[in-house]
Specification:
single chain, alpha+beta, Outer membrane efflux proteins (OEP), 4-stranded antiparallel β-sheet, two-stranded antiparallel ribbon, elongated, disordered N terminus
Length: 442
Amino acid sequence: MIKNRRSRGVIAFILGAFPAFRPAVSAQALSLAESLDAALATHPTLASAASRMLAAEAMGDAARASRLPAAALTANLVRFQEPMVVAPLHSLNLSNPPLFDRTLVQGQIGAQYTLFDGGARAWRIRGADATWESTRAGRGSAEMAVLEQVVVAYLGSTTARTLLEAARAQVAALDAEHARAQRHFGAGSAAELEVLRADAVRQEARAAEASSVARAEQAERGLAQVMGVDLASVSGRELEAVALRAASSPTAGASSPAVLQADRAVAAAEARLAEERAARLPSVQLGAGLQDFGTIDGGHVVEWRTGVELSWPMFTGGARSASVRRAAAEVEAARAELNAIRMQVDQEVDAAATAVLEADARTQALGAAVAQWEEVARIEALALDAGSGEQRDLLRAQAGLFEARAGHAVARQDAILARVRVARAEGVLSRDWILATMESRP
C-alpha cells in the first residue's frame, strides 16, 4: 500500500509539475490592452510621426495662403550726405519749390496679388496635400509597427515565463528522481550509476533553468521599454495569457499604409514636376498701396499707387531646365519605389499567410506530442517504481515532455504573431483588431 501511494505520488508530481507560473505580483495583472495603450501614448516613433503630420499640415496651409493677397508694411530712415528731395516731383512749380532734407523718413503699406503664375500655385497646393496624405499614411504605418512590437514583446514575455515554468518543473521532476535513486541506492536496490545519472541530468536542467530566467528577465525589459514604463511596472505583475479568438484570412495588400504612403509620394513628386514646368510661363501680379514721404521734422506727403507687373524670365543659365529634369527624375524614382513597396507588401502577405499555416500545424502537432509524452512519462514512472522499467527511459520521457511543452508554447506564440504580421501587411492592424482577434485570460 505504501509502495502504491509512492507510485501515485511520483506520477502526480511528474504530470502536475507544470503549474501556472505565478511570481509575486500586484493584485491586478498586466493585460495586452494596457500594454498597447501605454505604448501608443509614449512611444517616440509615434510622437515623431505626429510632429511630421503637423509640419505637413502647416506646409499645406502655407501653400493655400498664396491664394490670398499679401500685405506688407515697411518703413525706413535714411541719412544722405547732401540734401535730397523729400517727396517725388510730379510737376515743377517755381513758386512752391520742392522740399529738400538730408534725413528722409519713408513708409509704405502695400498689397500684392498674383493673378497668373502658369498654374504653379495650384500644383504647389496639390503637392502639399499629397505630402500630408503621405505623412498621414506614414503615421499609420508607424502605429502598426509599434502595435506589432508590443504584441511581440508581450507574447515574448508570456512565452518566456512559460518556458521558465517548464524549466523549473523539469528541475523539480529530476530532483524527485534523484531523491528516488538515492533512496534505492541506500537500500541496496539500485546502482550508484543511477544516482550519478540522475544528478548529471538534474544539473543540466538547472543550467537550462538559469538560461530561462535570463531570457524571461530580458523579455520583461523589452516589454517595459516598448511600453515606455519602468521595469518594476512589468516584472512585478502577472501577465494575462493571450489566445486567438478568431483567425483572419489573407486579403489583398492594397490598403497597406506603406503602399498608400508611396502612392501619395508619387502624387507629390508629380505636383512638384508640374510646378517646375509652370515656371516656364510668365507671371502677372497686381499691386497697390499707400506711400508716405517726409522728414523727422514733418512735411509728410501720402500718395497711393497701383499697377500690374508682368514677369517672364527669358534666360536662367539652364537652372530652370535643370530643375525640371531633377523633378522628373524624382517622379521616376517615386514610381519605382511604389512598385517595389507593392512587391514587398505582396511578399510579406504571402510569407505571413504561409507562416500562419505552419504555426497552426506546429501547434496542433506539438499539442498532441505533449499529450503523448505525458502518457509515456506516466507509464515509465509506473514501470520504474515497479522495478520493471529503466531509469534512462524515464529521464528520456521527462526530457521529451519538457521539449514538447516548450515547443508548444513557442508554436502558440508564433501562430498569433503570424496573424499579426498578416494584418500589418494587409493594412488592417489596429488596437481594435488586436483586441477583437485575441482574448486574454488571467
